[in-house]
Every structure is written in C-alpha cells, then in structure tokens.
Description:
Order of helices and strands: HHH
Distance between the termini: 66 Å
Largest sheet: none
Strand content: under 5%
Helix content: over 70%
Structural class: mainly alpha
Number of strands: 0
Radius of gyration: 19 Å
Amino acid sequence: MELGLLDHVEQRGLQRGKLEGKLEGKLEGQRELVREQLETRFGPLSPSVVAALEALPGDRLIELGRALITAASLEQLGLGVAST
Length: 84
C-alpha cells in the first residue's frame, strides 16, 4: 500500500515538472519571438533593452507583441532606446 502511494506522489511530481517545463518553454519562445520582432522593427537592441525584455512576465510579452505593430519607437513601448 505504501509503495502505491509513493508511486502516485512520484507520478504527480513528474506531471507537475512536465507542465512547468512546458510553460517555461512557451515563455522562452514568446520572449524570443518578441525580441526578434523588436530587432526587425527597430534594429539591434541595447543590453538594457534586452535585460528589460528578459524581466517581463508572459502577459506583458503578449501586450508588447501586439503594441509593437503600431509603435514608432522603443520609447513608446516603455523599453528605452536601441543601440547603434
């Protein structure tokens, strides 16, 4: 009986780990896509802009991705300036 309970707990732990891994991968993919879009639109990004982008939560990345369609500058997106 104890072994069955341990197996169940271990299985739940594995499932949770898989879910966390998927979510982390999704966030990393969103971040990479937004970064590539920003670089395509505004040119190379400064280290401070990259750091700000890395710190954004997932919901803000989605907002940023939508906003960059019409933004004229990184400043309008709240990200500072691009490097030259």
